[in-house]
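Supplementary Text 2. Reproducibility record for the structural model of the 98-residue chain.

All settings were left at their defaults, and a single model was retained for analysis rather than an ensemble. We include the record here because the model underlies the residue-level annotations in Supplementary Table 4.
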Amino acid sequence: MLGYVTVARCERAELYFDWSCHGLFRVNDALAEPYKPVPNVSVANDPRRYHAGDTLDTALPFDSRTGYRWGSVQDAKTVGLWVGVLLCVAAPIAAWSL
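Retained model, structure tokens:
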């Protein structure tokens, strides 16, 4: 189901910058997808902190309480993260081989 989570609260995980946000999930088009709102859905793949009332575009699998951010901006952030990780791994190797 595609929809959005209205953030109710965010909690910090073990790492300082790793947040987990929870809230009420609603579908984007209630006429096309007549599903009831799902309470207490956590957003799994976005570690940022949001304020209560913010809305996050989310894909929610059926019978699940864990949603995932979606969209081209989220995809670009994910690609950027992995390119950065690869560069951090490759830089010491390249410097060592010189």
